[in-house]
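Suppose you are handed only two things: the residues of a chain and a line of SMILES describing flavin-adenine dinucleotide. What would the bound structure be? This form records exactly that question and the answer produced for it, so the two can be stored side by side and reused later without any lookup.

QUESTION INPUTS
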Amino acid sequence: MKPHLDYDIAIIGGGVIGLSIAISLQQAGKTVVIIDRDDELINASRKNAGAFAFADIVPLATPHIIKSAPKWFLDPEGPLYIHPAYLLTIFPWMVRFWRASWNNMFTRLLEAQAGLMALSREALERQVKDLNAEFLLYRKGQLRLYEQKRNFDRSSILWDACSRYNIQHTLFNSVEEINEIQPGLSPKYRYAGFTPDWINVSDPNIWVQYIKDIYIDQGGKWLANSAKIIAPNENDVLIKMQESAVSASFCIVAAGAWSQKLASSMGDKIPLDTERGYNITLKNTGLDLRTHLTFAEHGFVVSMINQGIRVGGAVEFAGLMRPPNFDRADALLKKAKKILPGLANSFSHDKWMGFRPSLPDSLPIVDYSTKSKRVLYAFGHGHLGLTQAAGTAELIRDLIIGKRPEINISAFSAKRF
Ligand SMILES: Cc1cc2nc3c(=O)[nH]c(=O)nc-3n(C[C@H](O)[C@H](O)[C@H](O)COP(=O)(O)OP(=O)(O)OC[C@H]3O[C@@H](n4cnc5c(N)ncnc54)[C@H](O)[C@@H]3O)c2cc1C
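ANSWER OUTPUT
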């Protein structure tokens, strides 16, 4: 098989991670091709909740989650569900997840996550300036709400971490204080934390398309194809597709939840799985949403998308192949209507399921393959791919151009499992 094109960089995957890396490398003077099977429906980046969730620095495997999770598993409409046929497959991932909650491990993961978040926050501002993209953002903060005092008290793990890593936040203990930020909530919600530096995109689909259009305008190539095998040599790397191939000096795997197969074609065993998530987008709701709302006890968020309202969340372990169960999206809406009476008469615009690319320790891989320095990995961002895209892009760019990355990347290593 002969390569029919030559580039400095070939990126497999044109979601928000692949595209952000592509733009960053173009700025460094590299020629770039993105290979993407172009299935926008399953791409996680286009329909997520649209939050740059810079306050979410606490890894998912907290000691509290480990205690609560078993009762959630049994409720098909609860925030966390494992499909019975997927139990055996996900078991080793779950063991690693549990280990990530151990004290010393948790502290290390938190520090790494906070470092990547701080970089990503600054990198996003650079990206917004370079791409002239401020008009696509809402800067209205996030209100994280709690019904039960007990759960609010437990959330101190987050607020303490925010204090330690200089993330602005204010805690509220009364309906009046909460109402000042977001009126119209059920008065059951008496406890909250407000994080003013949280940012949202007006629509993740428009955000990704905007970056893609700039990438193409700057001479970037988009190859609508599925990459099958990555074959590195000493001086270049060949990416094989069904009937063709591309050669480049470096290949970056940014194929979201589908990256595991590509890494294993390199000989790297990575415990990547998918946390499937759901959302439902509503139009003409009549709800005056003033900030991004997070209902941590119920595992869902409410955000403003393109003048509509998106209610989304839930975690479902069921792999990449099983069809969606949209009852979960309906269940999220039912819960949201109870809390936000303003949503009562709204009609559903569309329902969506997406595949979060998740590693059990809540950190992505941003590193070389263990087998070749010509192949790099940028995947596994889980719930935070939009948030960490600009930071990840700067790290990968620095590795490619031989500059020391701005933060220590050892926690994001491909060897850590
Ligand atoms: C319900 C939900 C809500 C979310 N909300 C947020 C949020 O508010 N904030 C946030 O930061 N994150 C959020 N996330 C997570 C975020 O969407 C993901 O972390 C992020 O989109 C991952 O981006 P990616 O580029 O790695 O993967 P993707 O967007 O999935 O892109 C991967 C691309 O690779 C392509 N591909 C795969 N295999 C191949 C192959 N072999 N050859 C060629 N192409 C291939 C696919 O077609 C796809 O286009 C949410 C996720 C879900 C499901």
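WHAT STANDS OUT: DSSP finds eleven helices and 20 strands in the chain. The chain has a mean pLDDT of 93.
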